[in-house]
Amino acid sequence: MKTDNSAKKVNSVKKERREKKEKLTIEKRILQLSFFGSVLFIVAEGVMAWFTHSHSLWTDCLFDAADLVMIGPFLVLVPLLYKPVTEKHPYGYAQVESLFLLVKYSVLLALTCNLMVENIKLLLHGGHEVDAGSIAIFELLVCLGCAGMYLLLGHYSKKYESTTIKAELYMWKLDVISSMGVAVAFAVQMILFTTRFRFLTPYIDPAVAVIMALLLIKEPVKEIFQSIKNLILFAPEEDVLNQIRGIVDKHMNDYPYEVTFLDVIQTGRKLWVEVYIGNKTDVIHISILHRVRDEIKQELKYKYDQVYIEIIPD
To answer: Model confidence at 141, in pLDDT bands (50, 70, 90)?
Structure first.
């Protein structure tokens, strides 16, 4: 019996290592594709913005460039996120990811606010004219390119989706929406130019830049607060706690123990759950604790990336 249990444990460890290796490969591939795709679009946007002097194109280009600067170093950091927990690093390198996302979104927030202020100043000073037709066609092509990249990354992320992958997918989705919005706005400017409302055309470009900044500002603010919570090891959101509590209680009902306290910490992609249990007798069966721990972990691993469970007698 002991031999069977040992063999199962060894197989389980091997399977877990194999899964981690596959996840690392998928994540690196997605980040590399996103990196090279971003380089291509940033160069194209930068050249077009320089030729047309469009502030909305500069806004999009600089926002993408700030995101790109963050992807490069993160490609180096990704393998660290899969290193096991040690005495020296009790939480592994999960907080590195939270710190990295905090820096990334803080830079994006500062950049977005600065661009918004500059374009508001431009609006107050009468705006400026740009080649609306060229920009509309260019943005439509960018929209199609970004949509293709989003679908490609989405295909790979079906196998595995970390917080970093979600952030990259969000950025590409945002690029699709913003590019389409800019294309429509400049198409409208072309129509206005042939009507009595042509006096509005100088305001279209800076107005689009301000609207883009307002739309872009929500996600950095949200992620900054989430990253701070992860860094200082706050408990996750109430709905996450309730979901975990429900799963723990469901499995505990099959055993002669009751949950007295649930301690949950989430930092980056890692989730730590400590379940404190009470018992009506003074007898604790270690084999039962291991079994219920494995059952809870097995269910939680399908909902969360890297899960660590401890069952502790209170």
So the answer is: very high
Q: In sequence order, which residues have a C-beta less than 8 Å from that of residue 148 and are 6 or more positions away? A: none
Pick from 137, 169, 171: which is nearest to 64 by CA? 171
- Judged against a pLDDT cut of 80, whether residue 63 lies above it is answered with no
Same domain? 131 vs 188: yes
Determine the pLDDT at residue 280.
Answer: 66
H or E stretch including 225? helix 218-231
The bridge status of strand 306-313 relative to strand 270-279 is: parallel
pLDDT of 131 > 70? The answer is: yes
- Reading the block at residue 1, the tokens are 């019996």
Q: Exposure pattern of 93-109 as b/e (b: 16+ CB <10 Å)?
A: bbbbbbbbbbebbeebb
- Specify whether 40 is located in the same domain as 180: yes
Q: How many CB atoms lie within 10 A of CB 18?
A: 10
Q: Are 269 and 240 in contact (CB under 8 A)?
A: no
Q: Which domain-ending residue is among 231, 246, 266?
A: 231
Distance CA 191, CA 197 (A): 9
Verify that 186 and 294 share a domain, yes or no: no
Taken as a whole, the chain contains a residue count of 314
227 and 243: one domain?
no
User: Which residues, other chains included, contact 225 with Cβ-Cβ below 8 Å and sequence gap of 6+?
Assistant: none
* Domain carrying residue 276: 238-313
Last residue of a domain, one of 211, 231, 251: 231
Q: 2 falls in which pLDDT band (50, 70, 90)?
A: very low
Torsion of CA 213, 219, 225, 228, to 10 degrees: -100
